[in-house]
């Protein structure tokens, strides 16, 4: 009898990167609210740098958050790759500081710019290394802390969370407007 091996690595088709990356973003924000995700990332970062204690959260919740952040980073990378071909409808509304979050005015108007700058500064492997290191150091008390500058990837991740949320909100608004336009045409 012939043994069949199963390929466990999932590869996305080149033509479906835009659609699958938006689905990945949507799935991330369905299970992780923006404020909860930013708070968890902030807590992990604080406990990793402190070196004297470990995080009070359930370990399984931290590992689940780590895995969902890894998929979020990959979705952002795919968005960056399609940013030249796929233009997002820019917002002409006044900027709300609450909605803007950590984004500058230019980044708020074009959230794909955040992903482009983040992935030109760091690779996916470097973001994975950052996340893994932060989770590792936050789950236990160690004498030594992270050896690299971990502030820049943290700032990029918080900006990417804000930009991903803005992209999904604008996508929802565009879908609602197109549905309302279709209803008005049929009336």
How do you describe this structure in short?
The chain is mainly α and 187 residues long. The chain has 8 helices and no strands.
Which terms summarize this structure?
single chain; mainly alpha; 187 residues
Structural summary, described in words:
The chain has 187 residues and is an all-alpha fold. It contains eight helices and no strands. Helix 1 (17-31) runs antiparallel to helix 3 and helix 6 packs antiparallel against helix 8. The radius of gyration is 19 Å and the shape is elongated.
Distance between the termini: 64 Å
Number of strands: 0
Please indicate the count of domains. 1
Average pLDDT taken over every residue: 78
Approximately how much helix is present in the residues? Answer: 55-70%
- Tell me the number of helical segments per DSSP (H or I, 4 or more residues long): 8
Into which percentage range does the β-strand content fall? under 5%
The largest sheet, given as strand count, sense and whether it forms a barrel, is:
none
The SSE order reads HHHHHHHH
General shape: elongated
Radius of gyration: 19 Å
Structural class from helices and strands? Answer: mainly alpha
- Give start-end ranges of low-pLDDT stretches: none
């Amino acid at each position: 009898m012939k043994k069949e091996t199963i390929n466990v690595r999932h590869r996305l088709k080149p033509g479906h990167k835009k659609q699958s990356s938006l689905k990945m973003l949507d799935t991330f924000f369905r299970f992780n609210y923006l404020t909860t995700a930013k708070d968890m990332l902030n807590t992990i970062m604080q406990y990793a740098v402190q070196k004297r204690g470990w995080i009070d959260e359930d370990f399984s919740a931290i590992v689940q958050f780590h895995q969902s952040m890894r998929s979020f980073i990959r979705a952002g990378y795919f968005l960056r790759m399609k940013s030249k071909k796929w233009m997002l409808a820019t917002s002409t509304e006044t900027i709300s500081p609450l909605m803007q979050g950590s984004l500058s005015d230019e980044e708020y108007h074009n959230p794909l710019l955040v992903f482009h700058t983040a992935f030109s500064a760091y690779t996916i492997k470097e973001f994975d290394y950052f996340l893994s290191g932060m989770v590792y150091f936050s789950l236990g008390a160690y004498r030594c802390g992270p050896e690299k500058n971990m502030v820049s990837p943290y700032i990029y991740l918080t900006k990417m969370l804000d930009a991903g949320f803005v992209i999904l909100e604008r996508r929802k608004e565009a879908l609602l407007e197109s549905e309302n336009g279709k209803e008005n045409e049929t009336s």
